[in-house]
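Re: folding output
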Amino acid sequence: MGTKNKSGLRPGPLFCLLLVLLLGSVCAAEAEESTEESVTPQLNAASIVMIQGKSYRLKISDAEASAKIKWRSGSKKVATVSSTGKVKAKAAGKTKITAKVGDVRLKCKVTVGGDRWDQLLEQYRDDAKTNQLVFVRYTGGSSAKVQMYTKSGKQWKCIVDCGGYVGSNGIGKTKEGDRKTPTGTFNLTQAFGIKDDPGAGTSYVKVNQYLYWCGDQPYYNQLVDIREHPHSCRGEHLIDYVPQYYYGMFLDYNKDCVYGKGSAIFLHCTGSNPYTGGCIAVSQENMIKIIQNAESGAKICIYPA
C-alpha cells in the first residue's frame, strides 16, 4: 500500500519519476567525484644544461604541493639546489636534482658544461626573441657538423643533426672572394628558393629571373630586383644556382654592406661539390626542415668545433 502525504493523498507517478531522476543524478555526481584521479605533479624541466656560475629555477606544476617539496642535489660539487628549487651550477659535470613530494620523486638531469656551444644555449635560453639556433661546428677542410636547436619554454631540443659544407678554404672570412665562410653569430633573416614555399616559418622569397644578390657598389650585398633598379648586375643571379638555391636562407653577414667585405652568404642546399664558395650547405631534406622551423629571431652560429 502506498504512503500518503500530508494532504492524505498518495504521490502520483510523475512525482515518483522526478524523485528517482533527482536521486540518480546526485548519485552519479558523487560517483564521478569519487572516481576523479589526482594529477601527478611535474617539474618544468626534465633536463637542463648550465654554465658554471649560472642559476636556473626548477618549478613544480602543482601549486599546493610546491610548499611541501624537499629538494636534493646528487652532487653539490656540480650543482646545488635551494629550498625553493633554485639550482646553481658550481663546476663541470653531471648530477640529478630530486624533488620529493610526498611519496613521489621527481628528477631533473643537470649538465654543467663550459664549451662554446653550451654557452650559446645558455645565453639564449631566456631570450624570448630567439627560439631557434643553428650551429655550424667547423671540423676542418670544408666540412662541418650542422645542428638545429629549437626552444620550448626554456628547454632546447636538437631537431636537425647532420653533416654540411662550408667554404673551400674553411672559415674566417675577411674579404670578397677568399672562399671562406664567416665566423660568428648571425641572424637568419629570410627564407628563399627557386622552388615553391615548403611551409617556411618566416617570410619566403620565391626566386624569379629578375632577382640578384648584388655585388656592385651601389647595392652591394643586397637583394635586388633589376626591374626596380635597372643595371647590369655583377652579383649572383639566384635562379641560375641549381640545385643549391632550390631552398635557402639569407644571413645578415656584413649587414652594413661594406664594399669588399664579402656578400651573398647563405645557408642553402648542397650541390655536386663537397664545399661552397663561402656559404653553408646541407642536404635538401635538412634545408627544408630548417626553413620550416626557423622563425623570426633565429640565429646561426659558426665556429670551430
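--- second protein (sequence, then structure) ---
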Amino acid sequence: MRFLLSVAALLLSACASSPDRPALPSAAAIDAEAQRLMASQDVRGMAIAVIDDGQVVHVAAYGHANVAENRALQTDTVMYGASLTKAAFAYMVLQLVDEGRFDLDRPMHQYLPRPLPEYEDYADLAGDERWRQLTARHVLNHTTGFANFRWLEEDQKLRFHFDPGARYGYSGEGFYILQLVLEQGLGLDVGAEMQTRVFDRFAMTRTSMQWRADFRPNLADGYGIDGGFEPHDERSNVSAAGSMDTTIADQARMWAGIVRGEGLSPASRAELVRAQFPILSAHQFPTLRTETDPRGPAINLSAGLGLVTFNDASGPMWFKGGHNDFTGNTLICQEARRRCIVLLANSVRAELIYPEMVRFVLGETAMPWWWEYNPG
C-alpha cells in the first residue's frame, strides 16, 4: 500500500470543525476502515481520495493491482475510469459553452453537415424525426429516450423509447452522438480536447482517453463479483461514454479543481451540479423500467450535467458512478462543504462496501444507494 497525505490540510480541517463542517476522520482511521471493509467482502483492490474545502487531503490505495503477480495497487496505478468519463466530458463541454462555441439547448443536428440518420451508425433513426429534437442537454441529463446501449436491444438497433426530454433514462448512446457532433460539427478531436482542457490542466500525467503503452508496467487488472480475473482492456478508441484510464491521484486533482470551479465560469460551474431534471425512477438500472419511488422526489433526486444531484441535511450533494463487471467507481460530493470522496476499485465487489465507506468519511447523508446500486 502506498498513500499520499497532506497532514497540514487534515489538521486545518480538524481545527475548522463546526456543526456545519464536522471534522473528517483521521487518515489512519480512514485507512484502517477501508482495509477492514475490504477484508469483510474480499475486495481485491481499492483506492480512495478525500477532498475537503476544495483541497485534496488524503489519497491512498490498498490491496492488489494483480493478485496472481502479487502487484500492489498504488496511488499511481492506472485503473479504468468507466463512466466517470461522462462527468469529466461534461466539464469539457461546458468550457466550450463558456467560449460561445456550443449551446446546450440548440438541436444537435444543426451543428452537423448532414442529417444524423445519414451517418452509418445512426441509420436506424431514419423515419423517426425525433432525432431532430435532441440537444446536448438531453444527452448530459440522460433524457434522450435511448436504451443505455443499442446492443442491449433485442435486435441491437438504436431506437427512441420515449420523446427526448420526457423522462430520465441513463444512456451512453447519447454521449456517442454528442461526441460525433463535436467532431463532425465543430471539427474537434475529443481525445485531444479532453487531454488539454482537463487532464493537462490538472497535471493528470497518467490519465488518457486512449490506451498508452507506458501504462502497462503499473496497471490494474479487474476482478468480478465471483473473484474471476479480467485483464485490463486496452481501449484504443476515444469514447466520451467511458474510455478514460486514470489513477486515484489524478482523479483527486481533477475533482478538487472542478469543485473549486477552475476552468469554468461561475455560471457554468453552477450549471454542472444544478438540479435540472427530476428523477422519478425506482432504480437507475435497468434504464427503461417505469416504476417510481417516492424517496426520489423526497430528496429532489435530479439530473445535473453528467452527474446526479440530491438534497441532504448538509445542503446540495451530487455524485457519479462508474461500473462494469470488473470495475466499481464512485464520486460523491457535498457542495456547500466542497467535500468529496472518490473511490476507484478494480474489484466490482467494492460496491458492496461503498455505502459504509462513504458513511464513515462523510457521515450520514441522504445518498440514494437504493437507486444507485439496487436493480429493479
